[in-house]
Design goal:
The chain is about 55% helix and about 10% strand. The chain has a five-stranded parallel beta sheet with strand order 2-3-1-4-5, sandwiched between helices. Helix 2 crosses helix 5.
């Protein structure tokens, strides 16, 4: 069984994914897929450089994600171009990793699970949720970003209310971190009890 795990920036989905790994569940990270398909030497990186210019390539030949993020979040057409290039490549990488998993179920961790139609790859979805103000606070503390930049990222994603309505299971992550393991274990037990 494949479980989709999603949540916005700063929601704690990576921490939740780690808690599932501690329970012996394999995870496939869509962010890792998005990095893998644009590694130096990959055709996608060359296409991105041709589209956006060499200023988005770092001295080591890697992609300057921060520079690219600034460009696409202010230009919807450029964002769409990038998504149309990367999403099929990311999907193929994810499918390959999901097929290799051997745990009781496998988790596809994806911040854009619903937006990219990756939810079509999964049997059930788990949304890591918290109020937007706390989401911004945590993302700023973690990444050193400005609140307005985090807000733009949130605004570019599917609205929280829509994610809540589409999720099969909602894991509230507004409580203190020391209670997270118990909440993840409860979701884990629920998932184990589902018919295949």
């Amino acid at each position: 069984m494949i479980i989709g795990l999603t949540g916005g920036i700063g929601s704690g989905k990576s921490t939740v994914a780690e808690a599932f790994r501690q329970l012996g569940i394999e995870t496939v990270d869509a962010d890792q897929a998005s990095r893998a398909v644009v590694e130096p030497g990959m055709p996608a990186l060359a296409a991105i450089s041709a589209q956006f210019g060499s200023q988005i390539i770092q001295a080591d030949g890697g992609l300057d994600r921060a520079a690219l993020r600034q460009l696409i979040f202010t230009d919807p057409a450029q964002k769409l171009w990038l998504e149309s290039l990367l999403h099929p490549l990311i999907r193929d990488w994810i499918i390959e990793q999901l097929k290799a998993a051997t745990s009781a179920y496998v988790i596809l961790e994806s911040p854009l699970l619903f937006e990219t139609d990756q939810h079509q790859l999964v049997h059930k979805t788990v949304l890591v949720d918290l109020p937007e103000a706390l989401q911004i606070e945590r993302a700023c503390a973690r990444d050193g970003n400005q609140a307005d930049q985090i807000q733009r990222i949130i605004d570019a994603q599917m609205p929280r209310e829509e994610k809540l309505s589409r999720a099969d299971i909602v894991l509230d992550n507004s409580a203190p971190l020391d209670t997270l393991a118990a909440r993840v274990t409860a979701v884990h037990q629920t998932l184990l009890s589902l018919p295949l």
